[in-house]
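Field log, afternoon session.

UNIT: design team B
ACTIVITY: writing a sequence onto a fixed backbone
BACKBONE:
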């Protein structure tokens, strides 16, 4: 019997995407086990969410470390100790070093609140409003050494509505993040994602791939 994929979640804030992953694990949609939640901010809501779900909640405060190297080495130590096979960045507000990315290459995913490569970095909803686009969305991608530049795994589109402000648009994008991220984790757990020469290959039926590129899949879809 194949062992279940163990996921390590890195977070810095309230952990709404973490909450979506926990909910998916609890109702069987995730197909993986959240083995540990690591947060770099003392008192962050993400730590409380993990504890409430019975998941190891680990504080690795970047301010308590003399360098990024020691900070990331401590994170890596905890990930290894908990047998993690996939790292998920869920609102983790630190830039990871080439050393860490290389160590976990092909096994780190991030969710970003825009249709990359448009609007990378901070305040993606604000950027979308300022640009006057009619459609934005969210992206789950592999992490590389750049900022939101890694290979794209899946995206979901969100309309920009008349009267939207940054808060309302971001909230609507977040709803799509909360569905798309657990789905991608499940694909990893089922062995449906592999990386060849830096390019992700998703093992999906053509119809499911077309749907995934336009909208989020419903629970139970491949």
């Amino acid at each position: 019997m194949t062992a279940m994929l163990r996921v390590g979640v890195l977070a810095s804030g309230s952990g709404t995407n973490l909450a979506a992953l926990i909910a998916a694990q609890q109702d069987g949609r995730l197909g993986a086990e959240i083995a540990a939640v690591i947060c770099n901010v003392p008192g962050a809501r993400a730590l409380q969410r993990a504890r409430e779900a019975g998941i190891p909640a680990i504080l690795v405060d970047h301010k308590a470390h003399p360098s990024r190297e020691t900070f990331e080495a401590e994170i890596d130590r905890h990930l290894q100790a908990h047998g993690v096979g996939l790292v998920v960045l869920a609102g983790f507000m630190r830039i990871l070093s080439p050393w860490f990315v290389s160590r976990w290459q092909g096994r780190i995913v991030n969710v970003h609140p825009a249709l990359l490569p448009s609007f990378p970095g901070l305040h993606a909803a604000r950027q979308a409003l300022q640009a006057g686009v009619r459609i934005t969305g969210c992206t789950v991608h592999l992490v590389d050494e750049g900022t939101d530049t890694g290979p794209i795994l899946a995206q979901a589109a969100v309309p920009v509505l008349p009267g939207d402000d940054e808060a309302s648009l971001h909230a609507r994008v977040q709803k799509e993040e909360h569905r798309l991220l657990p789905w991608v984790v499940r694909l990893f757990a089922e062995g449906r994602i592999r990386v060849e020469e830096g390019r992700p290959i998703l093992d999906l039926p053509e119809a499911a791939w077309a749907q995934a590129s336009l909208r989020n899949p419903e629970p139970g879809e491949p």
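LOG NOTE: The chain is about 35% helix and 20% strand.
NEXT ACTIVITY: expression trials, pending approval
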